[in-house]
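User: Hi! I have a protein structure encoded as tokens and I'd like to know what sequence might fold into it. I'm fairly new to this, so please keep things simple.
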């Protein structure tokens, strides 16, 4: 999430939630295509046939009107509330899944290239997540790309802010790579609030694979300037 500037607030009145089910189906198909192309060897004839099909599909999609992410996000009630300047903690219990941002590249079911992270409430001050990073996101062979790992951690912390009803922007993210982050196996993630002070929220996080700790991280998040009052930052 970008630092410095706050996004503009747009009021949308009684706008409905919209039906994103067709987009979700298309995005899932795109993710399958991306993974298949990145991970499978096929003959050139097959690749050329796929290329022609994909180019034709892209040409059809490009005939549509441009999408605006903020407008998209405002169609989700829980996102609309927080973007319109309300203090809106998600009404979840421990263990409930968090829909952080369905349009994001981290865990977004409506994004055609998302990593497919799932977030869960642990407590009012902590979240957990699970992920299986596909080999298409490799950096060195058999290891998750460091930038992708940082992306996952950033969105994990963002999910914690969103769960608590806070719209905050990443001011600093420090990622410590303790060991290789493996691909294709379950990862367990956790983020928690370290401290709050005014508009500043400090978090810590860790990522573990089957063989133990892979990543530790700390992040500083800055509440938007007009953040509504809550029981705590």
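Assistant: Happy to help. Inverse folding works backwards from shape to sequence: for each of the 233 positions I chose a residue that suits the local structure. Here it is:
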């Amino acid at each position: 999430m970008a630092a410095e500037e706050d996004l503009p607030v747009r009021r949308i009145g009684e706008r409905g939630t919209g039906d994103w089910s067709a987009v979700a189906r298309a995005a899932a198909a795109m993710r399958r295509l991306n993974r298949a192309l990145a991970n499978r060897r096929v003959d050139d004839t097959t690749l050329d046939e796929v290329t022609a099909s994909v180019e034709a599909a892209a040409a059809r999609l490009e005939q549509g009107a441009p999408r605006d992410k903020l407008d998209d996000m405002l169609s989700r009630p829980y996102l609309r509330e927080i973007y319109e300047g309300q203090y809106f903690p998600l009404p979840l219990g421990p263990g409930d899944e968090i829909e952080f941002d369905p349009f994001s590249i981290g865990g977004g079911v409506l994004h055609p290239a998302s990593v497919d992270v799932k977030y869960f409430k642990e407590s009012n001050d902590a979240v957990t997540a699970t992920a299986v990073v596909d080999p298409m996101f490799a950096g060195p062979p058999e290891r998750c790309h460091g930038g992708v790992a940082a992306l996952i951690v950033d969105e994990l912390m963002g999910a914690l802010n969103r769960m608590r009803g806070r719209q905050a922007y990443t001011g600093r993210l420090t990622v410590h790579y303790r060991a290789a982050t493996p691909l294709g196996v379950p990862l367990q993630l956790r983020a928690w609030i370290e401290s709050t002070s005014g508009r500043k929220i400090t978090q810590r996080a860790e990522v573990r694979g089957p063989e133990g700790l892979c990543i530790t991280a700390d992040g500083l998040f800055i509440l938007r300037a007009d953040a509504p009052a809550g029981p705590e930052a």
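A useful reference point when you look it over: Residues 1-16 have pLDDT under 50 and may be disordered. Feel free to ask if any position seems puzzling.
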